[in-house]
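Milestone M4 deliverable, item 7.
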Amino acid sequence: MIFTTSILSQILPLEQITSAMLYSTLNKIGLEVESFCVKVAPNGVVVGKILECKKHPDATKLNVCQVAIGGVEGAYETRQIVCGAPNAREGIYVAVALEGAQLPEIAIKKAVLRGVESCGMLCSTTELGFPKLNDGIVELDSSMGELIIGKELCAYPIFNDAVYEISITPNRGDCMSLMGVARDLSVAFDLELKPLNVSKACDNAPGIGRVLQIVANSKHDASLLFQALETTPSTMPLNVNMLLAYNEILEGYWLKDAINFSTLFSGVIVNAYPQSFCQLDSQKAVLTLKKDEKGFESIYCGEKKLSSIGINLCAYDTQKQCVSTQCGKDTKEFIILEASYIAPEIIAQKVLETKEKVDTKLFQRTSRGSSPDLKTGLSLLSGLLLGENGVLYADAQELIDIPAKDSISLDIALMARVIGVHLEKVKVVTILKALGFEVETLSDNNLIIAKPPLFRHDIVRFQDIVEEIIRFYGIDSVPSTPLPFVQNNQANDASKEYYFKRNLAQKAVGVGFNETVHFVFDDKEKLQNYGFEVLCEDLELLNPITEDLNTLRSTLLLGLLRAVSRNFNNGFNAISLFEIGAVYDRMRIQKSKIAFIQSGLLAEEQYPNAKGIQGNFFSFCDRIARVIGGFSLEPLESSVKLFHSGQCAKVLRNGKTLGMIATLHPKVAKEFGLSEVGETYLCELDLKLLTESLPKVKMYSKFQKTQRDLSIVVDKAIPYFKIRECIANLQVPSIVSFYPLDVYSDSTLQDKISLTIRFGLQSDSKTLEEKDISEAMEIVLNALKTKFAVELR
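Output delivered:
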């Protein structure tokens, strides 16, 4: 939000407050100043008045103006100035840059334009270094103060102004308005807010009931207040347009600008329904509050929906309306004014459930909490629109049902312990009352009952009020004291999970993997194209941060592949990465996973390995085993297109599938620019299934361990894991370990292979003799012959 000292001084007496004080105080009370600057009109620019405006004799788009730059009426000092602005006309007050003035972009000199002498320049706001208000010259009016011809423009506060841009946290919807900021500053500086000049209906004004009827079809959550007036289209005051331009919400249509200013100033959501837009009955307008097809409370005129409370205002075409009002600017128009309020939690939840398209600026206000002071908002709007000849109808139509806030008990002694300094009860009461709280003091000096104001949606508990007190007491005023602290056992499930993840990460780094971190968002289309599951439509992100990060990721592998591709493009040819992070299934259920990728060389070229060390599938498996512990593999047929068919396996431990391991498909490698790197290997595992377990004590044999190799000829279609299961199920006591040692094939073996398995044999009670070893090997060989028809090689 952006505001200036001149506009803030309309509701807060700032005569004794410097810009430095204001800057410092805003930061202290939590309204962080993002930017600050002082805008000053250049010297030599004065208030002028166009006395005469005629067409240039030799240029269709230029006017020759006689401009008063000093003196008094009847004895003005004038200058002849040639001007091409479309809004230059007789009678208006303008900003005149005299000869010698130095503007931000140009130095003013006497010139001859198409044969006509021009002594000065009529300026726009942008030429003076201020925000753009229109496509022509700036028209000065009394909103900047008394217009004195010849007075330097920089002598007026609006053209010698401090401009503040503040950051509003999401919980402070009340400070998204000028009145909200002024309220906080009034407490901080101990100032009293100035009363607003509100418009009132004339004594003989007709009653609103003659022209407007409001109907509510059922119980409603929204509160509404309506007024009606007749007025002619008018130009908004200069100070209004300047504030809107600073905030980049100046639209150039008088009715829309009046609405924007009233909302920005008061924080109340206001709206207007002009008769030319709504086609209201000339005798009596009947507006109905009812729910639309998606359940949003909306205003209808007959069957036509005019607006939706909290998400969309009256959607008239401002360009079309501008044309129509210019054509009939002397004709009064009947306008219905509306102020609305709906609880932020209600409208935010409804939009989340329905994913309704909303006016983002409006919804930002209503979902954070707009002001429920509907009367003030309407008074500001009607005051801007009424003009000198307008008619404001007496009374108002209302549908108001704003629930009261719950009271909160405050223990002064407890507050003192939380803050770190004792506060007098009177001081606490004074701050709370200044902030709009209803305060009830009890006979017990330690207790206060405080009811938050309706506009403070963020205050619901004791701690929230303590935060308010410390904001205005000043955190710097609290003396520093040592904090007594006794460390308790902080171990819990979350900490155990954290340390487990960090332990895995350290092991991964120890075997040569580098850790990466990516967004939890990914590209939905690419996830689908590669065969990964994506979120259900009902659970998709409402406001993705970019088009490429439009859903929650269901795998870590795509992020790792992109990282490998970037590293390869940067000249690296030995890339090993891992990531630990969250992924989400189609129902948005979160899981933690760890993923690895190895691409290119295992180690880069370096003596004594002049060609580097080539990586392969088995070395990749070995590195992962050194991180997570031992595991076994079984073939896996996957629909995921990243994985090479026939080179994809399940990772198992104790019969449970931990995840998968695979070679990257050549087609995908080409898409990521990794074809020339060499093979790329992927692995992704579920962290929940990798939980650490305490080591189990096993009997240690004192007797010698013996090795024995068994070479068999077996059908190559039989996977090793089936052979492994067969041997393990035998549970031969003397066999303590076994693993494949060698695989051999040639043309003589045809569709079979030679497999050598190395066995470790040991007994807990004696040294094994040859007959014991032979007997164990015979049991294994017979079992393999029976089940797989193997032959001894």
